[in-house]
Amino acid sequence: MKRSVFFISDGTGITAETLGHSLLAQFESIEFDEVTLPYIDSVEKASEVVMEINRAADADGVRPIIIDTIVDKSIREVIAGANGYMMDVFDTFVGKLQAELCSNPVNAVGKSHSIANNKTYNIRIDAVHFALDNDDGARTKHYDKADLILVGVSRSGKTPTSLYMALQFGVYVGNYPLTEDDFDDLRLPAALREYKSKLFGLTIDPVRLSAIRNERRPNSPYAALSQCQKEVRAVEAMFNREGVPFIQTTHASVEEISTRIMSQVGIKRRSLQP
Amino acid sequence: MKRSVFFISDGTGITAETLGHSLLAQFESIEFDEVTLPYIDSVEKASEVVMEINRAADADGVRPIIIDTIVDKSIREVIAGANGYMMDVFDTFVGKLQAELCSNPVNAVGKSHSIANNKTYNIRIDAVHFALDNDDGARTKHYDKADLILVGVSRSGKTPTSLYMALQFGVYVGNYPLTEDDFDDLRLPAALREYKSKLFGLTIDPVRLSAIRNERRPNSPYAALSQCQKEVRAVEAMFNREGVPFIQTTHASVEEISTRIMSQVGIKRRSLQP
After folding, report:
1. Strand locations in A153-233, DSSP E?
2. Which ipTM did the prediction report?
3. Partner of B206 at 20 to 30 A CA spacing, among A104, A156, A170, B33?
4. B101 touches chain A (CB under 8 A)
5. Under a CB-based contact definition with an 8 Å cutoff, are residues A98 and A104 in contact?
6. Cα–Cα distance for residue pair B134/B172, rounded to 1 Å
7. Within the 192-221 window of chain A, which residues sit less than 8 Å (CB to CB) from chain B?
8. For residue B15, which residues of chain A lie inside 8 Å, CB to CB?
9. Each residue of B94-150: pLDDT tens digit?
10. Which residues of B touch A25 (CB under 8 A)?
11. Calpha distance A26→A89 (Å, rounded)
12. pTM value?
C-alpha cells in the first residue's frame, strides 16, 4: 500500500526530512511517497499545501502523514486543517525544552541551517577548497595542514567522502590514490610516509569495485574483476603491514563512512553545525 | 550559563544532531556545549556514555540535555539512567506512527543513512564527479547532461553549492565563473547561451565578497572592494537583462542556497535521501 508523506518546513526542510526519513525507515513493509516542502512561510503557501495534501489523501484513499518543523504557529494551524496525520516536531519538543531550560524560545524561522557566523561559514568553504586542491594526490605539499588523508584504490570512495567531511564537519581532508606502482614492496609511497598518523584507508569488495569501475570505463582492464581483486588484496596487505586503520566502504553511505572515521580517529569538527 | 547537550545514536548520529541542533537554536540566550556520540551500539558503550554525561552534570552544576535516536531499547534504558534530561526521539514518534500505519517497526539500527540501494548510491557519486568535472567552467561539453548550471563571479559560492547539491540531492550541477571579459556587452558568454534555461545565478554583497577574496589573496586587485563592486554590479545587470533567475548568497548557508534553488527551479532530487 502506498502512503503519501509530507515533510513541511518554513525553513530549508532539512530537519523535517532527515527526522521523517529516519522514522519511516523503521516501517519497511509500507511504500512511502515522500515529498519535502520547504519555505512554507506564509498562510497562503500553507493553504496551497493543504490542498496538495487533501488531493493526495483522495488519491491514496488514506490520509497522508505530515511531519513538520514549522515555527510559526499561525502557519502550523493552517496545515493542521489538512486531511492528514500530523506529527509536529517543534510543538512536541520545544515546550519540554522550554520548561527544562527555564527559557523562552525565540520562535524564529531558519535559526538552524543559516549562517550562524561568518567564521563557521569560512571554515566549511575553506575545507571544501582544501579537499578539491588536495584531491586524488594532485598535491601533497599541503598535507601538513590536513586533519586526515584518505588512501585507497581508485573508486573506493575517497573523493565523495573527503567532500562530505569538508561540508558537514569543516575538516581538512586530502586524499591520495594508491595504484599498482605503490604495491611492489607494500610500503607506503614516499609522499605519505611522514604523514602516517593522518592516514585512513578505504577498502571495498572487489566485485563491487569492478561494478563501479565498469560504469565509468566499461569492459576496460581497469574495471576487470581480476584487476580489482589484485589491487584490493595489495592495498589491504599494505594497510595491515603499515598499521594504517581502514574501513570497508562496500555497503556504507558517504554519511556512514564519514561519521565512522570521525568517531574512530577522534577528530573534532571544526565548524559548528550549520 | 553553559548547558551540556548530548546527541546520541546507535547509527551515524546525523538525525539526532540535526534535530537537536534545530531545537536548541530556538533558545538563543543559552550557551550550549554540544557533543555528538554516534555508534553507541552496545550496553558497554552506553555505560561509558552515562559516565561522561554524569561528569558533565557535575562540572556544569546542572543536568545535561540528552537527545537520542537509539533504536535498541536495552541501550536506551542504560542511557536513561544518566543524570540528564532525556528526549527520546524514536520513543516519542515511532509508537504514534505504529498506530497510524497499523504496522510494526523493524527496530533495526542504521536504516536511515545506509545505502538504501546501489542505484541511489551510484547517482550521488556520479553527481559528485559530474560537479567536479564541470567545475569552474573547466568543461562545457557535458552541459546537455546538467540539471542546472550555476553562474556568478569568482567566490560567490558556486563550487560548494554544486557539490552540496550533488551529495544531498544527486542532481547534476555544473558551474561557470563570470569574469570581466564577459561583462563588456552584458550578454551571456557564448558557451552558455544554448543552456539558458538551465542557468541559475548567484550574487553576493560586494563587501562580503571582498572579505572572502582577501582571505584567499590578501590585498590583491582581485580582492579590492572597488573591483568586487564592479563585478557584482555587472553580473546582476547581466542576470536582469538575460532573465536569469538569481539568489543572494551573502547571508545564506550552502544548505539554504541549495534548497532555495531546488524549490525555486522545481528540480526533483534524483537520489532518494540516504
Report:
1. 173-177, 199-203
2. 0.90
3. A170
4. yes
5. yes
6. 9
7. 211-212, 215
8. 18-19, 22
9. 999 999 999 999 877 666 665 555 666 788 889 999 999 998 887 888 899 999 999
10. 111-112
11. 18
12. 0.91
